[in-house]
Amino acid sequence: MRYTLKTMSKKQVAIISVTILAVAVLSTYTYVSVSAWNDIGARVKVEQATTARLTKIFFADNDGASSQSRKGAIETLSQDTPLECEPGWLIGWQSAFIGGARATVEKCNAFVAKQELVRSKTKNIANFYDDERKLADILSSLAVDKKKLAPSLYKPTSVTVSEVINGLESAQFTNQKFVGIKSEALSRLEPIETTWSALIKAHESKNRAKYDKATMKLSDAYKQVNSISKVVSTAYAEEVKELAGATDNL
Amino acid sequence: MLVKRMAVGIGVLGGLFLLSAPVYGLGLSSSAIEEDTKLVKEVVETIQTPKLEQPKWLKQEIAEEKQKNTASTSASSQASAAKANIIVTYDTTTKGSITANFSEFKVLANQTLNDARGWSRMGVAFKEVASGGQFTLVLSEASQLPTFSSGCSAEYSCRAGRFVIINQDRWQGATSSWNNAGGSLRDYRHMVVNHETGHWLGHGHGYCGGQGQSAPVMAQQSITLAGCKFNPWPLANELSAPALGI
User: Is 0.80 surpassed by the pTM of this model?
Assistant: First the structure.
């Protein structure tokens, strides 16, 4: 006996329709679920590859990578947004029951934790670059003209030194290592300020012995400023080392 | 055979692993670190000791002193020469960029060499000549010192062959150990001229004879007094000059 719509009862039609609809919905849901889990796995792979590529650019200085490309890599890494490892509640519940889904979430979370560490270290380095620029800007007012400094310029020069010290004292740095760098820079600049005051006093009182001594001390004090760049390099090397540690086993 | 094949396989796989190993954890070379932090370095390099133009009052004071000194130097040189058994000639020159007052340097060096407390006690008079002296007294920019000899450093003064070289930085600022011990710049200048000329006269380095004693002029007082008192003049037991046969 052949079934046709005409021969079927309304009930039978309804049952068949609901069954077809249910199968269609279930198939679509299954397809969307599989796609969502696959998508998470794929995004982890893409993120892993991107992070690996960027860290490789940063650490590949021996291959001639320039400072600019290193800084670019750091900027991109530090601005990276973290991966979402859960596809939303409608599909996410599956990870509690399906082994494959659970493994995908666990793998993704493990990567996100490592990526988060790398991001925090790259963020530190990105902040370091900003702070370095800020420090260089502040110190740049101390650049010395190669011409001989006339006695009339002793005071303005001394004022500039004091302004630089004040500027540095009030400057806010983001990277924690700049706390030490700032204090080192201040300890190197303060003797210059003191010596300028002594020199001006000696000049005003026309005291040759004190003037000679102050010029001597001024020369020593200026030579000490060199150590600021050494402290900056050392702190930067420490930041780089921390990033290298974070990228291990990524 | 099987073992050999396995060994080759492991070797190949190891090589491939090394080639594909990520660069994580390698860190950066010191040149890359320097390059990345060059911003501050470049700025710091522009922060040099300013060259100070001498104030008028100081110029005047030096000119008056020079006038006085020229008269007394020529008198003391003549007096020394008259009493001396041996006359040593020397010429003077500069090397590199000189910011110190060279005329003042020449006057003070001549006074030191012919001072009654100095080497002239051996019956030697030092006469400055325009050229062709027995030794050349040089006032040198610090960075130029190593160009005289690999044994000379930019830090201190030096003697290299016929050249008695005074480091401009030391001439202008003595050394921190000297300054910390309370020595005056004038005494340091006497000491360094006597010390380096002492080398030319044939002396090696001397050493502190004991706590609180006067340091031999040939001791390295620029570096440390080693418990001695600073002393710019040769001690009695240093009064010899092997180079002159005395």
Answer: no
